[in-house]
Amino acid sequence: MESQYQPLCQRLRQHFDQGVTRPLEWRRQQLTALRRLITENEPALLAALHQDLAKPAMEAWSTELAYVTGDIDHSLKRLKRWSAPRKATTPIVAQPGQAWVQPEPLGLVLIIGTWNYPLQICLAPLVAALSAGNCAILKPSELAPATAAILTELLPQYLDNEAVAVVNGAVAETTELLTERFDHILYTGNGAVGRIVMSAAAKHLTPVTLELGGKSPVFVDDSADLTITAQRLAWGKWLNAGQTCIAPDYVMVTAKQAGALMDALASAVHQMYGGEPKSSDSYGRIINERHCQRLITYLDGHEGVIGGEHDLAQRYLAPTIVQTDDWGCALMQEEIFGPILPVLVVKDFDEAVSRVRQGEKPLAAYLFSKDGEQQRRWVEQVSAGNQCLNDVLMFSAVPDLPFGGVGASGMGRYSGQAGFDTFSHLKAVLKRGWLKDLPLRFAPYSADKFKW
Ligand code: NAD
């Protein structure tokens, strides 16, 4: 049966086929218009993010709006270089000749977003898709309805409507949309749905980028400066009330430092959110009651909890630190994706590495240490989508670093040129000259040709 989205896909694909989206001028116009959308509607966008997640304005501005405009500026500056032919060395057998890689747009791409950074997670992949000269359909998360609504309202006012469209809906609509053929799908969300997206894509041999999650570990070594460590950890953990895919999920520390680290973390929380985080303007809320309840349940049976106060009706859970030695508890089995930070004692660096390696490959992995040899070993021995040494999250502020997971935390990457390449086909081209070829290459392969 024909899906309700077929006419839309057909329309956008036709636009692509007419070559409208190919010229760099069109791409620049779209990127500049998207930039204007953000700057001209800043208050309304911040209000929508506040409605969905009670995001503090400063936080929403830096991690969503400015993140995307920064990405646009970065792309605009490099667009010409990224899209230019990339010279390849031509070996003697192909001489005289010239070889190069020619990036070309893929066609119609689908971007499926999630709710935790509902603006950034839709628009940053869109920046990459438009930079590469594609048409795109955006499917924002239904769990952040205010942001989905404002994107639906504003995008058509700024962008080429024959090239970019927004489709809203939940499971039923997304399932139907996924029956259509796309030239690439970028999905952000959990791994269970990632598998559904990948099987739907397989029917059309559509390549996918899956931006998933996982339990991103932290090891704090004895040499670390605990005040700086705690401040950076607390920022990265309780930003967006812990609902960040690369947030530190749990912290490992030696027995010698555990108490001091807990104190330093508690004090960093106090400095950022005061004695009563519930009334702090700088602290967000959980996306919905279901997720809030899931998080509260994680605390069952745990002693040694700092924080933990909650108010389900207000979707509030305080910044919470849990000291535990139970590696088998629910808190340590699933991605937490909320404001609870378990702290676990390990014997040493080797145990920390081995604990991480026992689990699925995480989206991010963090080491706090002044020891250069440990830093080298962490990078070498811990496989993760992304890493930061002596900080958390900040790699995502470097547009030239590709962002993506490995293993269960995802596949493929975007950000900067990685995003441009994800939404391009890197076509190999060889152009030959007209000098006569050596006869060796052509049949008949008589023995006298191979006398050397
Ligand atoms: P979600 O519930 O918003 O789902 C994501 C998208 O999938 C939505 O658009 C939703 O409509 C769609 N969807 C849900 N069920 C579907 C189904 N059965 N078939 C087709 N589509 C379906 O988001 P979520 O999964 O709760 O997101 C949280 C997860 O996302 C966490 O694991 C987090 O780590 C991860 N995440 C990853 C990144 C990253 O960049 N790697 C960023 C943010 C979040």
UniProtKB/TrEMBL annotation:
Residues annotated as signal peptide: none
GO cellular component, one term: cytoplasm
Domain of life: Bacteria
Key words, A-Z: NAD, Oxidoreductase
GO biological process: aldehyde metabolic process
Record carries keyword DNA-binding: no
Active site: 211, 245
Family annotation (InterPro entries): Ald_DH/histidinol_DH, Ald_DH_C, Ald_DH_CS_GLU, Ald_DH_N, Aldehyde_DH_dom, Aldehyde_DH_NAD(P)
PROSITE patterns cross-referenced by the UniProt entry: ALDEHYDE_DEHYDR_GLU
Domain Aldehyde dehydrogenase: 14-429
PANTHER family on file: ALDEHYDE DEHYDROGENASE (PTHR43570), ALDEHYDE DEHYDROGENASE TYPE III, ISOFORM Q (PTHR43570:SF16)
Name this protein carries in UniProt: Aldehyde dehydrogenase
